[in-house]
UniProtKB/TrEMBL annotation:
Residues 23-210 form the 3'-5' exonuclease domain. The keyword Oxidoreductase does not apply. Residues 379-552 form the DNA-directed DNA polymerase family A palm domain. It comes from Klebsiella pneumoniae. InterPro entries: 3'-5'_exonuclease_dom, DNA-dir_DNA_pol_A_CS, DNA-dir_DNA_pol_A_palm_dom, DNA/RNA_pol_sf, DNA_polymerase_A, RNaseH-like_sf, RNaseH_sf. Single-chain monomer with multiple functions. CDD domains: DNA_pol_A_pol_I_C, DNA_polA_I_Ecoli_like_exo. Belongs to the DNA polymerase type-A family. Keywords: DNA damage, DNA repair, DNA replication, DNA-binding, DNA-directed DNA polymerase, Nucleotidyltransferase, Transferase. It is an enzyme of class 2 (transferase). This is DNA polymerase I.
Length: 552
């Protein structure tokens, strides 16, 4: 972020209340040019785009709004085409005039979810530069557990102002209008308010963020620079081979039939494997299995967690779990992904979200490309459908044991620190410590067990969970855990301190975070919070994403 950005908010004072009195809708070029001069002279301006779709790859721009100071905003319509709509400056002309301003790195901009607006402008060969602030990300860094970081929620929280909602001007359901169909009188107020609220939100949140060095560093050097990178990654999309997915879908369908038949054989009768009620009847009434947990409504639970535990002792839950997993793969990936190929680009375009998870991780939707299974053959085959263009290759890269490195840093355990400092394979080193063997005598099976211990324990895994993951008796799993903590006492001390703090205060402060995780409800959660406390860690993550974003 340019150094001047830190001074921008000092030259603009926030309004005490929002008013539409000084909102204008620009319909002539002379007024637009006057506003462009205002924008050039402003230390910082807010802007927003209005479109006819939430999919920024296919959306058409309908208008743009700007705010140069609190309460002073304008809307430039370019494509409202309802009956008797007034004449508007042609979109091509508006964008020609605005392009130098929007691409000027020295002219600082603030927006709400600017990644979307950047994508829209890219549709018209405009590369948005000078992205200094994003109010969605400011809110997220200040309080990632607040739940919602959309503009309407932020306006209510920070400005005590109820915004005009899209549904209020466009309607709901199947009769909802697209923005190009909304009358300019309503559209102008709505769009100008968006820009005005965005500017005022920034003026409220930015001083708060500046008070915290760690989070400020994350915002300036990780989150904001990540916006254009993610935008390019989304726009590039991923290339998939639909034939591979189609063939795999047919194989899964056949396997589902076989699993259904097997389930019927075990149950002694036919039933709908997708029916929770029928499954409850079969498992807990006819087979006499004791329920482990109840739903909020009081019925015996058939959740994945419950079935996994039951599958240790009964065959039917194991079959049901496999059936559910394959059915989800089929509906979510092998059947759906080919339908999501964009006809213009021939690729699948996901959306990445920086301000959704409380832990700081990225998430993705439409489709979720971060949750494709990798530990089973079916999931690996789905990944094989992701292909590189001709003369290109797909490169896979990941941080090396990052959670354990963070644990070593936080706990200051000498054993872990030494292992990393000496460049040892940490899982092999742990296996050697736990099993009392020389490093070169550790088997692949022992290393696998040590890996499960290393990652499981820092997330609060119990002896039962470890036993289930390694398929060993619970007593043996407990023995592994005891040996682990004997070899790495600093880790145990850190975990006990964390639990004690959570119990005493009911909350935990995250590393380099403004906000605290409150309402710690269990000892396990007390460990999960610090284990996930690193957001995106270092700007090197941006380097990895740039590899993806620069490809074809």
């Amino acid at each position: 972020m340019p150094a001047a950005a830190a001074e921008a908010e000092e030259e603009v004072e926030a309004a005490t209340a929002l008013s539409a009195e000084h909102y204008v809708t620009i319909l002539d070029e002379a007024t637009l040019l006057t506003w462009i001069d205002k924008l050039k002279q402003a230390p910082l301006f807010a802007f927003d785009t209005e479109t006819d779709s939430l999919d920024n790859i296919s959306a058409n721009m309908v208008g743009l709004s700007f705010a140069v100071e609190p309460g002073v905003a304008a809307y430039v319509p370019v494509a409202h085409d309802y009956l008797d709509a007034p004449d508007q400056i042609p979109r091509e002309r508006v964008l020609t005039l605005l392009k130098p301003l929007l691409e000027d790195e020295k002219v600082l901009k603030v927006g709400q979810n600017l990644k979307y607006d950047r994508g829209i402008l890219a549709n018209y060969d405009i590369e948005l530069r000078g992205i200094a602030f994003d109010t969605m990300l400011e809110s997220y860094i200040l309080d990632s557990v607040a739940g919602r970081h959309d503009m309407d929620s932020l306006s209510d929280r920070w400005l005590k102002h109820k915004t005009i909602t899209f549904e209020e001007i466009a309607g709901k359901g199947k009769n909802q209008l697209t923005f190009n169909q909304i009358a300019l009188e309503e559209a102008g107020r709505y769009a100008a308010e968006d820009a005005d609220v965005t500017l005022q939100l920034h003026l409220k949140m930015w001083p708060k963020l500046q008070q915290h060095e760690g989070p400020l560093n994350i915002f300036q050097h990780i989150e904001m620079p990540l916006v254009p990178v993610l935008s390019r990654v989304e726009r590039n999309g991923v290339k998939i081979d639909p034939a591979v997915l189609h063939a795999h879908s047919q194989e899964i369908a056949q396997r589902l039939v076989e699993l259904e038949q097997r389930a019927h054989e075990i149950a002694g009768e036919a039933f709908n494997l997708s029916s929770t009620k029928q499954l409850q009847t079969i498992l807990f009434e006819k087979q006499g299995i004791k329920p482990l947990k109840k739903t909020p409504g009081g019925a015996p639970s058939t959740s994945e967690e419950v079935l996994e535990e039951l599958a240790l002792d009964y065959p039917l839950p194991k079959v049901i779990l496999e059936y559910r997993g394959l059915a989800k793969l089929k509906s979510t990936y092998t059947d759906k992904l080919p339908l999501m190929i964009n006809p213009k680009t021939g690729r699948v375009h996901t959306s990445y979200h920086q301000a959704v998870t409380a832990t700081g991780r990225l998430s993705s939707t439409d489709p979720n490309l971060q949750n494709i299974p990798v530990r089973n053959e079916e999931g690996r085959r789905i990944r094989q459908a992701f292909i590189a263009p001709e003369d290109y290759v797909i490169v896979s890269a990941d941080y090396s044991q990052i959670e354990l490195r963070i644990m070593a840093h936080l706990s200051r355990d000498k054993g872990l620190l030494t292992a990393f400092a000496e460049g040892k394979d940490i899982h092999r080193a742990t296996a050697a410590e736990v099993f009392g063997l020389p490093l070169d005598s550790v088997s692949s099976e022992q290393r696998r067990s040590a890996k499960a211990i290393n990652f499981g324990l820092i997330y609060g895994m119990s002896a039962f969970g470890l036993a289930r993951q390694l398929n060993i008796p619970r007593k043996e799993a407990q023995k592994y855990m005891d040996l682990y903590f004997e070899r790495y006492p600093g880790v145990l001390e850190y975990m006990e301190r964390t639990r004690a703090q959570a119990k005493e205060q009911g909350m935990l402060k995250r590393w380099m975070a403004v906000d605290s995780i409150c309402r710690i409800s269990s000892p396990a959660m007390a460990l999960v919070v610090p284990a996930r406390s690193v957001r995106r860690l270092t700007p090197r993550c941006r380097g990895r994403l740039r590899i993806l974003s620069s490809g074809r």
